[in-house]
Amino acid sequence: MSLLDIFLELDIPQTENSKLINATALINFPFAKIGVNYFGFPVILISSKFDQMQLAQKNIKLRYIELTHNLQCKVLTNDISESNSYSVIIFKSNEITLQNYFLGVAKSLLNSLSKKPTQKEISEIFKIFIEIFRSLAEPSAKTVQGLWAELILIEQSKKPETLINYWHNFPEEKFDFNADKQKIEVKSSSHLERVHYFTSEQLNPSEDNQVVIASIFTKQVSNGLNLIDLLDKIGARVSENTLLDKVYRIVSKTLGNTFEQAVNTKFDYILAKESLLFYRHQDISKVEKNNIPKKVSEVKFKSNLTNIQPIDFAEKLVKGQLFDAL
């Protein structure tokens, strides 16, 4: 069962005591419990070794989460009540899609803890929670369509770990995936035409660099997959916790304060998979670098890929770690 499934089976406490939590132990994480409070919010409780040095740790309140150290809680498990001190993470939303995202982050971070975590370890994962969820109060850096297209490329790749490793840390970077001399830029189209915007830098790289353009059709549909669905698919294939943490950080940074609306947007998964094609930067019409005056920068243009031959990787590309992962 997923953490969301376990959470949804819990009964909300019938009391206004915010420190009373109905919870159940997690088999895979003997040091942790998942619970629900009076407001119906998901709660993660973590037991830890006492550490005098960590007592002064600050508690954090953000838009979506509260993180509290050494909180004395009354926990009800199978009708048995106990009081104990926990490190507590509360996610402040009743929206099930957002709860699923939070619990995905929580699972990834719980996996990174030892079987008997110290409070220092917990403080470190609190820092990651803060980084991920603080971003949700910032302006968005890219549309949900663009992010969804990047995620489906990762999900469809032969080696998603490799793509995540080379995925941009900041949405504003020039290339979506950058492995030094090998780069991938993802372009999506909601009009079912392979006509995309490019910057001059994306199609005029250094001579020894190869850029591959991934072109994807992304059509909004009511019965498609949203970002959380893609994250679940990627999580099922990637076991390295640091890479999954990176994915959650990038998703939060990219969507910012549009997150709540964006995660409920669904796109046609089958169409995206079947439409995915790759192109060499050399084959795409562009404004040549030597035609751009030296004092002109940030040149953007639209180019049509419809009549260009897609890449045959076996014949046209130099082998390398990034391209081999596609």
SS element count, helices:
12
| Quaternary assembly | single chain
Radius of gyration: 23 Å
What is the percent of helical residues?
25-40%
Task: Give the spatial strand order of the biggest sheet.
Answer: 1-2-3-6-5
Element-by-element helix/strand order? HEEEEEEHHHHEEEHEEHHHHEEHH
The overall number of domains is 2
Mean pLDDT: 90
Q: Alpha-carbon distance between the termini?
A: 30 Å
Percent strand: 25-35%
What structural class is derived from the secondary structure elements? alpha+beta
Structural description of this entry:
The protein is α+β, with helices and mostly antiparallel strands and 326 residues long. It folds into two domains: 3-137, no CATH class; 144-324, no CATH class. 33% of the residues lie in helices and 26% in strands. It is built from twelve helices and 13 strands. It has helices at 3-8, 96-111, 119-134, 144-156, 160-165, 200-203, 227-237, 241-255, 259-262, 269-275, 313-316, 321-324; strands at residues 20-26, 29-36, 42-46, 60-61, 65-77, 80-91, 177-179, 182-189, 195-199, 210-217, 220-225, 277-280, 300-304. The strands form three sheets. A five-stranded mixed β-barrel has the order 1-2-3-6-5. The longest helix is centred in the first third of the chain and has 16 residues, at 96-111. It is elongated and about 70 Å long. The model has no long low-confidence stretch (mean pLDDT 90).
Question: What layout of secondary structure does this protein have?
Answer:
Layout: H1 3-8, E1 20-26, E2 29-36, E3 42-46, E4 60-61, E5 65-77, E6 80-91, H2 96-111, H3 119-134, H4 144-156, H5 160-165, E7 177-179, E8 182-189, E9 195-199, H6 200-203, E10 210-217, E11 220-225, H7 227-237, H8 241-255, H9 259-262, H10 269-275, E12 277-280, E13 300-304, H11 313-316, H12 321-324
Parallel strand pairs: 1-5, 8-10
Antiparallel strand pairs: 1-2, 2-3, 3-6, 4-5, 5-6, 7-8, 9-13, 10-12
